[in-house]
User: Fold this.
Amino acid sequence: MNDIERYWEEHTVNSTPFTSKEESERYLLWRSDIYPKMKELMDLYGDRGGQTVLDYGCGPGDDTIGYLMEGGASKVFSLDISSKALGLLEDRLKLYGIDSKRVELIKIQEGESIPIDVGSIDHVHSSGVIHHSSSPADVLKELYRVLRPSGTGVVMVYNRESVWFHLFTVYERMIKKGHFEGLSPEEAFSRTTDGENCPVSKPFVPKEFISLCRNVGFDAEFAGGYISEREMEMLRYKYMDALKDERLPEESREFLDSLQFSGRGFPMKDKLFAGIGGVYRLRK
Assistant:
């Protein structure tokens, strides 16, 4: 077990088991509330009737449940490096009474090939996982391999062109609070997302991630970055202070100064949402 596997075995997201289907449903509603625009940008869960879906890095199964219950997928392959996460998902599936033939749970190792046949998946989904990989390009190659011709995919990785990166990490944490002395903004960012000791947590510039996707064969587009509740809080209370602060680096100043706001107050850059959840839509 390498450092990445060990970390996520010990830091499984939402590791408290649900005691009822209703409790699980309340959690999914709460998740949508704290990440406005997430379901819209990630196309959760679309009409997947008759399709086979791969949930890569499924965790405790939020989206596996969604694709099975809301999307109507015929089958979901749910892969994760954490046996604890897969155990939580297995218990959760029982709460919903989902037919075991409709879902297959697969434990993989970090960097391992996906144990699924070439061209057997209609839609690949990966939310908040590839930015934790030691080799994102290799993961994308595997997603491309298992996807059928004309198949689709949606991937979320952390967005460097986000309020989280420039306002929360660079301004609030590094400048105002003096945290992460001696670290680059990228290194500091990695300490602010999934725990300060998370082995890998990389934010991607959209054109950089699109290039990775296209290099393995995908037709890829950036759909924008969905917003977190923390980012909205930062905008309410720190946005103007940051722009007035002479210590703010020019790159971050230019980013914040370029933001426009939707009717509901969501930050946008180049007419796309500028949150931490960078969403990419893929087609083979």
